[in-house]
Structure formats: C-alpha cells, structure tokens
Amino acid sequence: MTSAPEFSWLENGDGPPVVFLHGIGGGAGSWAPQLETLAERYRVIALDLPGYGQSEPLGNLSFPALANALTRFLDHLSLEKVHLVGHSIGGMIAQEFAAGQSGRLSSLTLSATSPAFGNPDGDFQKKFIAARLAPIEAGKTMADIAETVVPELVGAKASPEAIQLAKACMSKVPPATYSAMMHCLITFDRKADLANMAVPTMVLAGEDDTQAPAPMMERMATRIPGARFVCISGAGHLANIEQPSAFDSALTTFLDSL
Description:
- It contains 10 helices and 8 strands.
- It is α/β, with parallel strands linked by helices.
- An 8-stranded mixed β-sheet has the order 1-2-4-3-5-6-7-8, sandwiched between helices.
- Helix 2 crosses helix 3, helix 4 runs antiparallel to helix 7 and helix 5 runs antiparallel to helix 6.
- The longest helix has 15 residues.
C-alpha cells in the first residue's frame, strides 16, 4: 500500500499507466488479480476512493467532487494521460471524469456499471437505499453485510477464493463511507453524455450480473461512438474477481487494439 496526505493506492509494474476505480463494496485490494497479472506489461494503479483505505473522505460527496479527487490523484502521480478502468460506481466516476477531462484518457473501460441511476426522489431509489442501509441501522457490521451481499453479486462460476476476496474487501469498508456512497449513487445521470464520449471505450458486462444487466450495458455501448461491448459468460457483478483471466483477456485485447 502506498499513501500520500490525501490518497492511498496499490501499484505494481511498469509501462503505460492503467488506473482502476473500485465499486462501493470494494477498495484498491479488489483489483488484486489485475495488480498481479497485468503488471508484466502495464503500470497498474488501484486507487482507494475517498473514504476507503487511507484515502481521506470528502466533506461534500458528489460525482463532480469524486472526479475532481481523481484529477488531483493523477496530478499527484504526474500522470498526464491514463487508461481508466471503472467498476460499478467506479465506472460512474469514470464517466463523470470523461465528461470533463477526456483529454487525459487514453481509453475508458466501463465494467458492471450504468449511465444513470434514475431520480433520487423516486420510489425505487428510496426503497433501494432503505434496503441497502437497513442492516447498518440494525447494528450489523460490514463483515455481516458482506456475508449476505457478496453471494448475491457473484455468478455461479465464482470460486470460493473469489468470494472470500470480495467479502474481505467489503468487510474493510467504513460504514459511514458505505452509506455516503449509496446516497451518492442514486444521484448519477450521464445518459446525455454517452453520444459525446470522444475516447476509445469498452463496455464490459457479466452475463449473470443482476445489478448492471448485460442487455442494459449492451444498449449503453450502442450509444457510445465506436464502443466495444464484451460480455463475460457466467460472471456476475464482480467479473474481475470472479473470472480474472477472462476479464484480463478482454481488457488487454482492448488495450492492444489501441
């Protein structure tokens, strides 16, 4: 783990920089498979988002603020241009960043994510937040929550080791960060910007993902000029952990094509 006053991150390898952004229940460690396998060809950098690991939380959490934090992180590492990979809410932050900082992207990979979550005041969103945060309000720990949530996220082919890694990552998320990110999640809407994405983009789905279903992500890809759509058979919401070889193959094939 490497840390600076504002950020903590994991890093391995040398070569073109690839920056990874994790999901709500993750952390830099959720990219452990990629940190090992992709480091032979790339400088692999997995950031702890604000409030995760040793990264400082943001006082006013919003997608613009998260994108600005990513800008500061890239500046801290003196990275002018990167390949950016975002998973779930990390993919939303990546879209937010691309909307204002496309010149700093060599490519964009959006994994198990969505271009919008809908109306924050909608009934579905209110029920979603209530259901996700009820265990915390009932006094459950993040380790307790991980035991229930992770099996619902993964596909049938996930190994016991993959499930254990996902649970370990989720167990380390501070409850306050988890709650704040959940409330932030339902504010996201960048549907109108998809047609204006001006960077090479891959949209990567898990065939069995119930959180960001593959058909929805395929429709998303059709709205991004020149985007490549890849669906990993038998994978759920955590494809990079569940099936790292298939995930890495899709990502390196995409990067090689550039």
